[in-house]
Amino acid sequence: MNKILIADDEKLIRNAMKSIMKKYGVCSAVSNGKEALQAFFYAEKTSKPFNLIMLDISMGEPSGVDVLREIRKYEAKKEIPAEKRTKIIMVTGNSDSDTVKDCIESGCDRYVLKPLSHDIIAKYVNELSPKNKV
Question: How high is the pLDDT of residue 61?
């Protein structure tokens, strides 16, 4: 069973993502980048890491891209192989090519535009977590 973290600064979006993602695993939700990092590091410290993070790009302090970079930096320092690192799907309403490129270069596994599509989410979860196919 996946352990999923949802990070978005808009409560309505967080609730919608939880509703979509609950069929893929146990969900926790936070409202900003600081809380996302705290949840990630706490989960790592307690040996109950997240398998998947749905990360809004334009959250406040720090941004979703900054959270992504911090997580990947931690995983590199711990020498976690790519296939075992936390899967991160960046979520945004911004389809600007520079933003997409920045997320990919920073190590995201997928990039999805709001509003979320159940079909796209199912496809990405299946690709990233083949043992938990839906």
Answer: 82
Spatial CA neighbour of 32 closest among 16, 14, 46: 14
- For residue 119, what is the domain's CATH number? 3.40.50.2300
**pLDDT number for residue 130:** 55
Task: Give domain status of residue 86, yes or no.
Answer: yes
Q: Is 50 a domain residue? A: yes
Q: Please report, as a single letter, which amino acid is at residue 47.
A: S
At residue 124's C-alpha, the angle toward residues 111 and 19, to 5°, is: 90
Number of structural domains the chain divides into: 1
Nearest residue to 112 (alpha-carbon basis) of 130, 127, 133 = 127
Residue 34, strand partner residues: none
pLDDT digits (tens, 9 = 90+) for 27-72: 999 999 999 999 999 999 999 999 999 999 988 789 999 999 999 9
Q: Please enumerate in sequence order all residues whose Cβ is within 8 A of that of 78, keeping only pairs 6 or more positions apart, or say none.
A: none
Asked, for residue 91, whether it belongs to a domain, the answer is: yes
